[in-house]
Fold this sequence. Notes:
Blueprint: H1 3-10, H2 18-23, H3 34-53, H4 59-65, H5 77-80, H6 96-106, E1 114-120, H7 123-136, H8 144-160, E2 163-164, E3 171-176, E4 181-186, E5 189-197, H9 231-243, E6 247-252, E7 260-274, H10 283-293, E8 298-306, H11 309-316, E9 320-329, H12 335-345, E10 349-353, E11 366-379, E12 384-390, H13 396-401, E13 407-408, H14 411-415, E14 419-430
Parallel strand pairs: 1-2, 1-3, 7-14
Antiparallel strand pairs: 3-4, 5-7, 5-8, 6-7, 9-12, 9-14, 10-11, 10-13, 11-12
Amino acid sequence: MSILEIAKKILPEGAICDHCMGRQFANLSTGLTNDERGRAVKLVLAMEADRLSKDEDDKSLLERLAPSSRNARYSLKDFTKNDEQCWVCLGIFEKLEEWADRAVKVVEGIEYSTFVVGTKISGLLSENEEILWAESGTTYGEPIKSELNREVGKLIAAKTGKEVDIKNPDVVFTLDIAKEVVYAQIRSLYIAGRYRKFVRGIPQTRWPCRNCKGRGCEKCNQTGQQYPESVDELIRGPVIRATGGNDTRFHGSGREDIDALMLGTGRPFVVEALSPKIRTIDVAAIQEEINVESSGKIEVEGLKLVSKDLIHKLKSSKADKVYKLKVTFSDPVTENTLRLAAEKLTGSQIEQRTPVRVSHRRADLVRKRKVHSVELLEYNAEYSIFKVDCQGGLYVKELVSGDENRTSPSLTGIIGAQARVEELDVIDVKIDI
């Protein structure tokens, strides 16, 4: 079907603006805007109508083509009907400046360099467009949403000097046509580093109070938290102040028990600053502020801005870990017995059924993990210190205790006396960030 044949089917439906006419041929001829296409199509229609008006044999065709037959000659004006509102878009393309101004206003005071525009179309506009496509039979058109996104985007760029970035924008504007408002979603900032934790009893992330589920009660002093502070919260404050964000989200490379220390090289993490108002930040200053305010409880180092992709790497990677364990025994055990046990565990494959202590939140499975090495560092009558280098995902406390024979082999099983981890320190998490 030719362009003119499609256009002739469109005209009887009612007044239509240049944008909506041209959008039906958006995939034809690059370098033109839809309103330019629409105006060109209408010009050709006017010329065709003028030609038919001179041919007495084509009067019936003329009646179908032209908006009026009162004149002997037809001009572009006869096909634009500027005094009538476009029935397809309801005049929205006359208000592009208003939509751009709303978008610019909603991000006042927010630092950004790139953006993209999306549109939540109203039901009426969507219905009108479906009717037009069905009647015209066009196969060259584009959705009205696409044109609105593009044209409002051009105006925002001109007003602000910012650039459109479809893949990774700092701001996503959403035009809600039905409500006549613009929403802005601000892309998070991601700061990576490593943390060391020097105090036991501090969890990695915020724990909602078990009693009130985070709502606040007497047991948690109305804080909504099970514990008064966490690594997450000790990092959160300086990041919020530096970015102007409304909150943070913590992403760690695994996690240590609340009673464990995180020493050595530290644990990799990414802190996500949500809805930041400031994107140009001094990470060195943030790092210093965190370390000062934490009062020796934690220490962070190597802070740097990263992409969101690093979070997936942290979450999906089973990083090998090195632990230092303080172990006690139910019965006296000789140093030689412990050294022989360490040798037997070195290089072994461990089969672990999900430990009793985490069975309420993890599937009951048998997991196989490798122990790279076990070394006895210190021995005395009261306790012994071991260094364990193992595959990520190994429950090292159960490697020692045996967990009622759910872990095999184990230190307890080898020495024939119940062994128990009294203190656990993580001294290395083997992953690069």
